[in-house]
Amino acid sequence: MPLTQITPPGALPMDVLEARAHVRQDADFDDIKLRALLSGAVSFAALETRRALVASRWQLTLDSFPGPSLTGVPWGQPYGLPSHAILLERSPLVQLVAIEYLDMGGIWQTMPAGDYVVDAAGPVPRITPIFGRIWPIPMPQIGSVRVTFDAGYAAAVRVDASANSLTLINWRPLKIGEVLRLSNSGGALPAPLQPNTDYIVNTLNPTTGAVTLSATPAGPEIDLTDTGTGTHYAGTQVSAEPAGVIPEGIKAWMACRISDLYEHRGSTVAIKGQLAALPWIDGLLDPFRAPLL
Q1: CA nearest neighbour of 136 among 114, 97, 109, 118
Q2: DSSP H helices in the chain
Q3: Would you give the distance in Å from CA 27 to the centre of its chain?
Q4: Between 263 and 170, where is the model more confident?
Q5: 183-193 pLDDT, tens per residue?
Q6: How many helical (H) and strand (E) elements, i.e. helices and strands, does the chain have?
Q7: Cβ(285)–Cβ(49) under 8 Å?
Q8: Would you say 81 and 126 are in contact if contact means Cβ atoms under 8 Å apart?
Q9: At what angle do helices 248-263 and 31-49 cross, to 10 degrees?
Q10: What share of the chain is helix, strand, coil (3-state, %, to 5)?
Q11: Residue 86 forms beta bridges with which residues?
């Protein structure tokens, strides 16, 4: 099942300043190298866990809808991967954008959202037709079905302090009154915002998606006095992890991998003049591994 990233994340899940601090480098002359090592660690972590770390858009291409076309699931089974379910290989799922298929006339059709059900609560996002329906019949041709979706633990954030606004990149549309949480890597959030704190979407620009925040429902708009430093992330609750946060276990694994490549320090240790691997390092990713599809 070809899976393609069609919109990359707005930022890496760790700022280069945080990576620099981990390898105990004070100067910035190696930032290009550290950024490259970080990109490699991110790619490896995504492949190992089958997770999207920072929100990005993906497209799954299929040759047909999965079958057989059942109208239900086995009774009494608490969780399963039904043979007629579309399974998404990147999670946590932020939103399903569209399911499209090539009809017999060679025209791309968009399946109505009311004709299918999406379950993103388990380890693998699953999509099936609603009870009593079957998948449409696409043209019998390769690549005749495509599923577009956004996935990630948190979104990268653009800040406009002059407008007191934040814009989440590759996140689903927000609603006024929703709870938003923020985090930061390599610096500090825009003052006076704090990590691990609930903020309420106060106003919303429907064109740009920019939002302003308040500390309480219907409270006054928070005045941002600066744009902060480092890299900012935000999000609503999409998984068991805290909202708007890249899991610390994954970040710790990436930091170890970066330092190992940078100076043989992290996943290896020197014992009597020889480097030995620390087997528990890759175990940091175990809680985040999605099942093989």
Answers
A1: 109
A2: 16-22, 31-49, 248-263
A3: 31
A4: 170
A5: 999 999 999 99
A6: 3, 16
A7: yes
A8: yes
A9: 130
A10: 20, 30, 50
A11: 127
Distance CA 212, CA 158 (A): 12
The tokens describing 91, both together, are: 């999670």
Whole-number pLDDT of residue 83: 84
158 closest CA partner among 280, 17, 55: 55
| Sheet architecture: strand order including 86-87 | 86-87, 126-129, 116-119
Residue range 237-289, pLDDT digits in tens: 887 777 889 999 999 989 888 887 777 656 666 666 676 776 667 777 887 87
Nearest to 186 by CA among 138, 265, 255, 133: 255
> Residue 23 has which token pair?
């390898």
Strands 274-277 and 268-271: antiparallel
Exposure b/e, 9-46, CB count within 10 A at least 16 = b = bbbbbbbbbbbbebbebeeeeeeeebbebbeebbeebb
Decide if pLDDT at 203 tops 80.
yes
> 291 versus 149: which is more confidently predicted?
149
How far apart (Å, rounded) are the C-alpha atoms in residues 65 and 80?
18
Q: Which amino acid is at 175?
A: K
Query: pLDDT value at position 178?
Result: 94
Average pLDDT over residues 82-93: 91
Residue 70 pLDDT > 60: no
Average pLDDT, rounded, for the chain: 89
CA 113/CA 142 separation, integer angstroms: 23
Which backbone phi and psi does 183 adopt, to 5 degrees?
A: -145, 175
Average pLDDT, integer, range 177-201: 95
Overall residue count recorded for the chain in this entry: 293
Interatomic CA distance for residues 60 and 78, integer angstroms:
26
Distance CA 247, CA 45 (A): 12
Cross-strand pairs, 167: 158
